[in-house]
Amino acid sequence: SKETTLSQLFLTFHGIPYPVTMCTQETFQALDDFEARGDDVLLASYPKCGSNWILHIVSELIFAVSKKKYACPEFPVLECGDAEKYQKSVRRMKRFPSPRILTTHLHYDKLPQSIITNKVKILVIFRNPKDTAVSFFHFHNDVPDIPSYASWDEFFKQFIKGQVSWGSYFDFAINWNKHIDDENVKFILYEDLKENLVVGIKEISEFLGFSLTDEQIEAVSAQSTFQAMRANSQETHGAIGPFLFRKGEVGDWKSLFTETQNQEMDERFKECLAGTALGDKLKY
Ligand code: A3P
């Protein structure tokens, strides 16, 4: 049954709630010893900000420069999986040729030390918090084997409090905002990619130091539209595919937010991000 009590949902590690179905204490401890390579690429995001989109784009870019094909299941989120699964991924990743792609929903200051020491290039994908919340709500309630919420209102309350998987969107944003000007860090906005995918992909490609022709960039772009990714989603992501590629739009929050919730979110956004580099950048 999808009936659950919230206290059973989370494992709290260093003050942040993570889903017990996906994360374990042992894996968090093992992460301390993760060996990043200097030429790894890390994709960091709060859940539902478009991590699978950017993973696909970066995989296609790497394929275009090296003809090396990445299969998505090869790239579990760094902190997900029990100890055994994690060790298996680590062994498999050791055999991968560079550049490898890593993905995470962790705060910057919770990353394995080797990622910082090796100055791994980091792409951080952000999305406005309203659409992120709506996408997260649907994800919980659509996917059969994860806990669902009684209502949107209930989810919204927990989201604002940060009592959801991977904790508060705002804490995540505040934490990463401190690194917005780091040389090895680039922020990408979901809304910017929606507005101009070709330009966004070109920027990502340049940040990664690839030199691709306009034709190559356009080819990657054509394969990275929502329609293209959704059409292939069962093949690329299995049964969960159609849930991961649900709607793919900017402004879907209007379908669920009440006016009071809208004001509450605006207030929270102001408190946490007004006047910060990320707050100014985020299309909102
Ligand atoms: P919606 O639920 O609003 O449709 P993540 O990959 O981080 O879990 O994020 C999932 C969200 O990104 C979903 O949002 C999904 O539809 C959207 N998404 C994935 N691929 C996309 C694409 N190519 N274009 C636009 N949105 C995309």
Give an account of the 3D structure:
The chain is an alpha/beta fold and 284 residues long. It has a single domain (10-281), classed as Rossmann fold (3-Layer(aba) Sandwich). Helices cover 48% and strands 10% of the residues. It contains 15 helices and six strands. The chain has helices at 25-31, 51-66, 83-95, 113-117, 129-142, 152-161, 169-177, 190-195, 197-207, 214-223, 226-231, 233-237, 241-244, 259-273, 277-281, and strands at residues 10-13, 16-19, 41-45, 101-104, 121-126, 185-189. The strands form two sheets. A four-stranded parallel sheet has the order 4-3-5-6. Strands 1-2 form a two-stranded antiparallel sheet. Strand 1 (10-13) and strand 2 (16-19) form a beta hairpin. Helix 2 packs antiparallel against helix 10, helix 7 runs parallel beside helix 14 and helix 9 (197-207) packs across helix 10. It is globular and about 50 Å long. The model has no long low-confidence stretch (mean pLDDT 93). The structure holds adenosine-3'-5'-diphosphate. Residues 45, 47-53, 131, 135, 138, 224-226, 229, 244-248, 252 line the site of adenosine-3'-5'-diphosphate. Its EC number is 2.8.2.-. Residues 39-276 form the Sulfotransferase domain. InterPro entries: P-loop_NTPase, Sulfotransferase_dom. Its main location: cytoplasm. It is found in: Cytoplasm.
Can you lay out the helices and strands and say which pair or pack?
Layout: E1 10-13, E2 16-19, H1 25-31, E3 41-45, H2 51-66, H3 83-95, E4 101-104, H4 113-117, E5 121-126, H5 129-142, H6 152-161, H7 169-177, E6 185-189, H8 190-195, H9 197-207, H10 214-223, H11 226-231, H12 233-237, H13 241-244, H14 259-273, H15 277-281
Helix pairs in contact: 2-10, 7-14, 9-10
